[in-house]
Amino acid sequence: MVIKEMLPEHWEAVKKIYELGIATGLATFETKAPEWEEWDKNHLPHSRLVCLIDERVAGWVALSPVSGRCVYGGVAEISIYIHPSFKSMGIGFVLMEHVISESEKNGIWTLQAGIFEENKASIRLHEKSGFRKLGYRENLGKLNQQWHTIVLFERRSKTIGIS
Fold first, then answer.
1. H or E stretch including 150?
2. Contacts within 8 Å (CB) and 24+ apart, 9-14
3. What is the pLDDT of residues 53-69, one digit of tens each?
4. Long-range contacts of 17-23 (CB under 8 A, 24+ apart)
5. Can you list the domains of the chain with their CATH numbers?
6. How far apart are CA 35 and CA 15, in angstroms?
7. What count of other Cβ atoms lies within 10 Å of the Cβ of residue 59?
8. More exposed terminus of the chain, fewer Cβ within 10 Å: N or C?
9. Handedness of CA 144, 27, 58, 37 (dihedral sign)
10. What CA–CA distances, in Å, run from 151 to 26, 50, 111, 118, 156?
11. CA–CA dist 36, 38 (Å, integer)
12. What is the pLDDT of residues 14-47, one digit of tens each?
């Protein structure tokens, strides 16, 4: 298992993993993956990581800004996806440890996540990684004619910002 910076040449594999996540109906309200240019524009330029196993992208993690306002410059939303063939191998936790470290090196003091309440594996991963449940947004949106409640999580840095 090797954790590396996500590069544009990883995009096709990253996109495929994202599409597999979309297909579950439990990962995002998105219904299709964007092209690289749009994805690149909507994610922070740092803290983009892939996990390689036998030179295959097994999972990825990246951060998005939560707001364009400067006061939220240290707050980011996390996205993490693991290829189904590599589930239950601890890849999510390893990626999470690395992205937390990278985010703090880049001035991020709060990571937040919104997770479908049915996505128990993602909820467990975030809790194991030091995120705390803040609450939920009941029936926030519909996907495939089904309402989904989003559980809200955050992780405050113990090394930067106010903890």
1. strand 146-156
2. 10/50, 10/57, 10/60, 11/36, 11/39, 13/50, 13/56, 13/57, 14/50, 14/57, 14/60, 14/81
3. 999 999 999 999 988 78
4. 17/57, 17/59, 17/60, 17/81, 17/82, 17/83, 18/60, 18/81, 20/81, 20/83, 20/84, 21/81
5. 2-156 (3.40.630.30)
6. 8
7. 25
8. C
9. positive
10. 12, 25, 14, 9, 17
11. 6
12. 999 999 999 998 899 888 999 999 999 999 999 9
DSSP state of 72: G
Q: Report the chain's C-alpha Rg in angstroms.
A: 15
Among all chains, which residue has been given the structure tokens 């955050």? 154
User: To the nearest 5 percent, what fractions of the chain are helix, strand and coil?
Assistant: 35, 35, 35
* Helix (H) or strand (E) run with residue 109 in it: none
